[in-house]
Amino acid sequence: MGGTLLKNCAAVITDEGKGPIVRRNVDLLTEGPTIRAIGEHLEGEALPEGTSVMDAAGWFVYPGLVNTHHHFFQCFVRNRADLDWTKLSVIEWLDRIYPVFSQLNEACFYHSSVTAMAELIKHGCTTAFDHQYNFPRHAGKRLIDRQFEAADLLGMRFHAGRGGNTLPKSEGSTIPDEMLETTDEFISDCARLIDTYHDAGPFSMRQVVVAPCQPVNAYRETFVESVALARDRGVMLHTHVGEGESPVMQARHGLRTVDYLESIGFSGPDTFYAHCWELTHDELRTMAASGTGVSHCPEPVYLVGAEVTDIPAMAAFGLRIGLGCDGAASNDNSNLMHCLHSAYMLQCLASSTRAHPVPPPVDFLRYGTSGGASLLGRSDIGRLAPGMAADLFAIDTRRMDYVGTRHDPLSLIPRVGIGMATDMTMINGRVVWANGAFPGLDEAKLAADAEAALATINV
């Protein structure tokens, strides 16, 4: 079982469980899928057989980023002027864009997943959760199977959120009939995916999350059965919450979304919600009390134009917080590193209207790493320390871009931002991106194949 020695790193962001700290001028040694040691002069020790040595002079080495909310398939509908939602409510935008989503075929779901994961990896993301809720009838049921295939190709650590929609438009949802499933169909396929792919062991590369799309577009029984299945199989739960739908839920069920989900048990330490920008402080306290986490997606906030998610309150109340890109239809990129910068800057913008202070920049780095790992129920990723997964990325700071910034590696990404791809990304001890290329893969061919798949549909 070979390894990699990163020799003479300018800085390594380590975390023994008490928060990130900087270690200067040290080596980092991996063995198989794990970090074996971080310290000085490791080359003088007995190295695992087959260890390769990389000169890391000038490199800042960070724990791999953990993306906790995405919709990979939306990569095929980004940068579309005709789908601009800046003048629409979220619900109105969904009414416009769902008919487009319903046209995608199986090949589109595979190639859009390759596209999204490749961009994530280039920018330091080593674990990705995708909320795949779009199952057009003509595309079949094996869409997440194809996503696992894409993850294997690129070497991505992948958590698949099996989403679904069950409420028809005639009963108040925004979902075209072509995208609807029954609760039995949805639960049955969740169970199939768990049985086929879910690996709960250390350094697992494949996990499954039961993730009905959103309460406003599903029957109550869909969420009740989701809770029962997830708790029986020991997997995580996820859904969209607090992005404009709470008044609809109040009118329909007599409860806003958080209380509705609490009432059926769709909450707790094994549950995380996406967005949550419209929630009251009392609702945030309810989530904190139950241990429910939140995946904050900062970049769609620019487009929604409604309000900036109250991360300071969430932090003050003790919520578990992670970060997500969200789908490319409401973000237009798959760059989680950029989201760390956006998240921090947005909170600074809104700070004068908030009751709680903006968390320091290092906390936003934590949200994107160990915070995301916590949301996904992982204790083996999100930190750089001996025994943890060898998931990391490196930035060579010997460039003009970083002059004057190198004194504070902890704040560099949230405060300054990184405007280029990493110099190296490693997942589970394997280098998956280095020197501007995916080792063993032809990026130009991957891109051409994706464009060809996109050209087969009328979107």
Short description:
The chain has 459 residues and is α/β, with parallel strands linked by helices. It has helices at residues 90-101, 106-122, 143-154, 183-197, 220-233, 246-253, 257-263, 281-290, 299-304, 311-317, 336-349, 361-375, 409-416, 443-454, and strands spanning 4-14, 21-31, 34-39, 52-55, 59-63, 65-67, 125-132, 157-162, 206-210, 237-241, 271-275, 293-296, 321-323, 392-396, 424-427, 430-434.
Summary keywords:
Metal_Hydrolase; 8-stranded mixed sheet; TIM Barrel; 4-stranded parallel sheet; Urease, subunit C, domain 1; alpha/beta; Amidohydrolase
CATH class of the largest domain, anyone? Alpha Beta
CATH topology of the largest domain: TIM Barrel
Mean pLDDT: 95
Q: What are the segments in which pLDDT stays under 50 over at least 5 consecutive residues?
A: none
Structural class: alpha/beta
**Main β sheet profile:** 8 strands, mixed
Taking the alpha carbons of the first and last residues, their distance comes to: 47 Å
Strand content: 15-25%
Secondary-structure element string: EEEEEEHHEHEHEHEHHEHEHHEHHEHEEH
What spatial form do the alpha-carbon principal axes imply?
globular
The CATH superfamily title of the largest domain:
Metal-dependent hydrolases
Structure report:
- This is Amidohydrolase.
- GO terms for molecular function: hydrolase activity, acting on carbon-nitrogen (but not peptide) bonds.
- Keywords: Hydrolase.
- InterPro entries: Amidohydro-rel, Metal-dep_hydrolase_composite, Metal_Hydrolase, MTA/SAH_deaminase.
- The protein is 34% helix and 20% strand.
- The protein is an alpha/beta fold.
- It has two domains: 4-63 and 382-434, Urease, subunit C, domain 1 (Roll); 65-375, Metal-dependent hydrolases (TIM Barrel, Alpha-Beta Barrel).
- Strands 1, 2, 3, 4, 5, 14, 15 and 16 form an eight-stranded mixed beta sheet that branches.
- It is globular and about 70 Å long.
- The model has no long low-confidence stretch (mean pLDDT 95).
